[in-house]
Amino acid sequence: MHLPATVFMPVHAAVVQRNVMPAYEARHQGFLSGLPREFWWLWTATLINSLGGFVGIFLALYLTTGLGYSAGFAGLVGSLYGGGAVVASILGGFLTDRIGRTRTILVAQLTTSLSTLVLGFVGDAPMIAAMAFVVGVSGAASRPAIGATIADLTEGPERQKAFSLNYWAGNLGFGVSAAIVGIVAQHGYLSLFVVEATATFVCAILVYVKVPETGVKLDREHLEDSRFFAGYASVFRDWVFMGILGMTFLMALLFQQAATALPITMGIKGFSSADYGMVISLNGFMIVLLQVALSRVVKSVRPRRVLAASALLCGYGLAVIAGASSLPFYFLAVAIWTLGEIIFAPVIMSLVAQLSPAATRGRYQGMYQLAFSGAALALRFQWKCDRSLRGQYHLDYLRSDRYGSGNWLHSAGTRGGGAIERIR
To answer: pTM, whole model, 2 decimals?
Structure first.
């Protein structure tokens, strides 16, 4: 007969299990509870989509190793892919408000599924470039709709919790996909395109069937805001939001600069790609491990303080990269700016949702996404302009601004947070 483990448990251990474990489980169940069922379907779709997100990871390697194109052409295709995300932020935000959240997600992800599959079959340079742009546009066009849907489904403290969990799901899926992309590629590069196309198709149908439309119905009151230019004009007139958007762009530049400067700096100092892989993997590991716990910690802290702390952590994390000379220091640098990223993401996403009127919520989410896609594209072009320096520009920039970056972003975070305090 199988006896419960508590029969053989010492008395003090049984007491711990009876008194401490229920409290621990209750805290975590409390954080995960209170969210509507529709959100969890959206969360599941985010996880599946990111688990199959291979194209962005291996596209450059596929073009150079698989098809034999030059690194310059791979860079061009990468720029088109990133430029597509910039276009998608504006277009996706408009469609989210105009035709609805679920329809935008359905159209965007079905287009992504089809274009990804086509990209895996074409071999001509013009077709590859064109399809990479289409995948970039359609793949990012659903993000404003997803953000708007989460904002519609939640309010108050539950909203920040929902954004945190969705962000966690995306990073978990991305980390797993990055780890298994090499295994899947052993069956041929085409299998990567097929898997991503299938995952995206499943997500499109899942969201359309399980998540109801949450957007407002267009009436005479909202008809003016439904127009493309008039709708975005109302967003630009929101000076508080534009201030927060500017701060978000600066933070996005910092996140992207870290991703760009880290491999360059480590390469200059003689570290291998394997060393870089180990160091950067700490970012995903920490997000998966700490995102939920830290979100609970900062939930009751004023946004102004969270944003200022995030800016300081990210700025000084970059400063450590500039002065690092051994792997432990690089691990420390990644750990510092990852903590800043973890506490920044759910707070800023919740604030964007709080500031956005229901009729233009898609456009607000689109502008928020534009801050990140625009920062990534800006740094890509910056790297192209400075490629003759072999990355020395980025290294010198970090050294010359070793402490200025932290102070500059601390000021940005504090002022952006000040604007937030005025609307609370």
So the answer is: 0.79
